[in-house]
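Late entry, written up from scratch paper. The run itself happened at the end of the previous shift, but nothing got recorded in the book at the time, so transcribing now.
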Amino acid sequence: MWHLVCGDLAVEGVTHVLGEHIAAQSLRVLHDDLAVGPLIDIDQPPCAQRIAYWQSLWPALLQPVPDFAGELVREARWLSGLAHGPRAVTVWHGDSCSEQLLLARIAHALAGSPVELWEVACGNLQLRPRRAVSLRRREELVDLYQHHHRLDASRRQQLAAQWQAAINDNAAIRLWRAGRFQSRAHAYIDEPLLAACSAEWQPLARALAEVMAHCDGFFPTDVFLYWRARELAAQGRLKLDGSDQDGYAERLVRLPH
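Output as recorded:
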């Protein structure tokens, strides 16, 4: 059995549930944030558009730069082989759009395959607050794992169709709300980012934290938001100043527009 998680933050909790020995043999981490950027060639090595997106988004001063070209191609090729492998697959997912898209991506990769697909649903049934796998306590993950279950053919087909629709839409941003994916343009995040700024200089981190706290539909990362801040600065809507040791600007101000 493979156990798949989206991002490193989920590793510690899931490893606790599985145990170190099983996790070492079966836990696989996929790092791509599927909620943002073009998906049109993500499953088609060499994944040129997807790789170019991440390379252009990443801050030049933020080191080390991930090996996007190598990792994204390796992930695509590994996923393409799952349908012909001997292991069943379990996807751990919560209220993160990226995690939900990972589940849909795996269902698509396994379309027509006898390989079983299981899920550990870690989301919040009350919808608020949203819960990604990494936001669950260890004891919660242990309990949730006790209720993991196999997806039937109908659910797998539905998820695979959702992944194909996301690829076809090729949107800038994807949201996950009430069990459905929605496509959005960059304005969906740019407007709240501008609203979090003022005509007075303020720390960049404060503005990013404000957007993160109130964003509905996906979990925007600081790297993604900093890219949007740089794009807004290029449009003359923000001004960035300074650079700290992590490769980020230190403060920003909203310009008249």
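The beta strands are 2-6, 27-30, 89-93, 117-121, 149-150, 173-177, 180-184, 202-203, 238-241, 251-254.
(Scratch paper discarded after transcription.)
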